[in-house]
Amino acid sequence: GAGVSQSPSNKVTEKGKDVELRCDPISGHTALYWYRQSLGQGLEFLIYFQGNSAPDKSGLPSDRFSAERTGGSVSTLTIQRTQQEDSAVYLCASSSGQGLGNTIYFGEGSWLTVV
Amino acid sequence: GQNIDQPTEMTATEGAIVQINCTYQTSGFNGLFWYQQHAGEAPTFLSYNVLDGLEEKGRFSSFLSRSKGYSYLLLKELQMKDSASYLCAVRSEGAGSYQLTFGKGTKLSVIP
To answer: What was the pLDDT predicted at A39?
Structure first.
């Protein structure tokens, strides 16, 4: 596609429910990142996928968070048993690879509110 | 780990010049990015530096000194639409992974 596409744009869920957030990266981009941004805060790294390599999961805040990337393209971030502190915007970004200067492009984000 | 510092807020006058500083401490440095983020929107790419020196792109310029762990973003001829948060991000390489770590951002307010 022309840009990084994320869905849903907005999600309100009850505490304790599971949510799935989807990211469709720019066509041909092999690197994919998930970040979380709480209101008024900086971007917090969650997970990074690069091609067929094992993902870098070092930023996932707890075992309630998981992500997968099927076929090297679309990625799904899953949050189980959501808590109110999970409320944030979840941003997905992609780039064309590891080479120097590969610009990282962001999607519009999925705004999650846990009530 | 990585540590990135930038001022929380800045105010500047329309038409003026403003410099936003960023200092970082990281291992495996692999480039520094500046992003602009308007409230409620996704970050958009502004500039990239991997070698020391100044990169100029229209009204925006970015400088890097790797030995000092220092960068700045220079905005000239400020316009009201430049009011936004400016994010400094450092890419680092470790164990085959390229991680991009963001600072907390500098909120710039441009006043008439």
So the answer is: 82
* A29 contacts in chain B (CB < 8 Å): none
Residue A110 phi, psi (nearest 5): -115, 120
Contact status, residue A58 vs residue A74, Cβ threshold 8 Å = no
First and final C-alpha spacing in chain B: 41
Q: How far apart are CA A10 and CA A31, in angstroms?
A: 24
Res. A115: pLDDT tops 60: yes
The answer to whether A108 touches A6, Cβ cutoff 8 Å, is yes
Please give the distance of CA B28 from its chain centroid, rounded to a whole number: 19
B9 vs B97: CA distance, rounded Å: 32
Contacts of B81 (CB under 8 A, 6+ apart): none
Q: What is the distance in angstroms between the Cα of B52 and the nearest Cα belonging to chain A? A: 14
- Which residues of A, range 37-76, sit inside 8 Å of B by Cβ? 41-43, 45, 48, 50, 53, 56, 58
CB B91 within 8 A of CB B100: yes
pLDDT in tens, B36-92: 999 888 899 999 999 999 999 899 999 999 999 999 999 999 999 999 999 999 988
For chain A, what is the radius of gyration of the CA atoms? 13
Question: What is the token pair recorded at A76?
Answer: 């799904």
Whose tokens are 């401490």? That residue is B25
